Amino acid sequence: MTLLNAFTVNATVQSMSPILLAALAGSLCGRVGIFNIALEGQILVGAFASIAGSFYTGSALLGVLSGILVTALFSLILALGTTRFRGDSIVISVGMNLLASGLTAYLLRVLFDTAGTFSSPEIAEVKRIVIRAINTTPWIGWIFSRQTPITWAAWILTILVTLVMFRMPLGLRMRGVGQNPEAARTLGVNVERLQLWTVVAAGALTGLAGAQLSLGTVGIFAEDMSAGRGWIAVVAVMLARNHPAWAAFVCLVFAMADTASVQLQAQGLPNQLTDAVPYVITLAALVMGSLRNRKRRQAALA
Amino acid sequence: MHRLALLRPHPVLMAILTGLVFGALLLLLSGQNPLRAYAEMVRGALAPRNWNNTLVWAVPMIGMTLVAALPLRGGMVNLGGDGQLVIGGFVAAMAAIYLPLPGPLLAAVAILSAMLAAGLYAALAALGQTVLGIPMLISSLLLSYPAIGLTSWAAGFPLRDTATGLAQTLPVPEAARLPMLFGPVSTGVVLMALVAAVVVWADRRSVPGYELRMRGLNARFARYGGVPTARQTVTVMFLSGALAGLTGAIIVLGTHYRFINGALVSPGYTWSGLMAALLAGGEPLMAIAAGFFFAALQTGGFAMQREIQVPRVLSMVLQAIIILFVSLRNGRGAARKEDRS
User: Fold this and answer.
1) Is the minimum CB–CB distance between A169 and chain B shorter than 8 Å?
2) Looking at the 3D structure of chain A, how many domains does it have?
3) For residue A27, what are the domain limits?
4) ipTM for the whole complex
């Protein structure tokens, strides 16, 4: 069992938190009827703003906060674009992804006079929480110790978002807006305002995802460092039909596949092939899921 | 009223203007003279001695614009352009290097097999939607990654040209290379122009083109009117992928003369092309114009970086802002019409 050791389990949990946070954001947007495929760009903006904030203030906390704030502001494009201006969410999202990629690369050159990656001793990284009592305990310690506060936040937020969505009046209103905006409007819900704030709140979550990616792992910013994570979150959201807990499960499967691919690489398989493993597994899961659904439907018909 | 409507500037022009103003602000903030930067961009893209550069960039750009525009016309989105592009480029290189065929025939076979392979790969994503119910947005995107991974591995290991030290295949034989025809015009330019003309014609004058437009306007109506939408999805995606294959083949046989790892994906033709197609709402002629405009922005960006050291990614920012403003203005215009009725 070389696949499951302290390091790989720990790394899996750590590397899945940006995807998880983005998937939470995606399911929030999806619930209010806004299909958000800008997650990739939002994570990137969050990662950049966190690094810049940490670099200029010397504080990891302020870095994370600036990541959250800037990404929430960036999300206003989608929030206002789909509500006030009634634009198409796919077009706006694709534009946002390109804008994020271009703007971060431009600012990287202008502000930090570098291309590719930016690292500096002045960047304060997010410290990991080491729980001494369980640090070396198999499984429990591997999972829970040596994780950043953002990873903890990601899991707590998963529970919180699920509770709000299915157990609170606010969640009921959100689901109502997504399912039938006209009916929700008739019942006195301010549809546009709810959509707007949901998208902005989701943006804050993706900012946190970006902060974990840059400040929570290596403390550097690299161009296009979101590297498909936002798209995986989009897939998770679609697979889970906007259910945050199911989305978290899909993220977990994906993260395990990702860790497995790193392991395969260590076994000597070239990384060009192993990089594709998580996507192939996701695709296989989609195919198997739909085949099962079809069988069930046929059984129901018979 | 009527005259006022005429005086109101076209939304796309307004968006371009807004993009330029925003870009100028960015330039000012970074201590550059925006007028000088834009002048360098225009010169870099349009001065006669740079036509060759612009065309070399415009051909794949317009190719990938059509790749996105074709499905978009019917309300579908193909996000897997990158995967289809590399498959096309890779297959073209393989066919040209390893098939024992004479001269022009070799180039033709290489191009056709690239189109076939990329088309079939794209059709796979369509089948994912029609047979398995996986949204094409997702299936096409996910299929991109293994395609990029496999070709990049093949160019890096078993098929690597060990003489160069880079992850690239052997060069394609002289005979299979697409020649320059006259001045800055290459065979690739002519091929792409022909294909673009066919797409525009099919969109406006042919029955399948009409059926596709009808579906884009109202999918339910199209189905009611007897359009076999599932078959149409697969056909349209096959053609879209085939165009990506053609684009890859033109780059490999006409510019790089071999399959170089990452060289097809990293310029971002696919996403810029998608932007251009979205800008035009999938209408091919407008999409081609937008694709050409974006290509000019890109080559202008290279010149700007070379001459006055302004990062060329600025052209990407301009593209994004333009597309965002067009989508917002379109949305608001539509909303206004809705309110009136």
Assistant:
1) no
2) 1
3) 6-230
4) 0.87
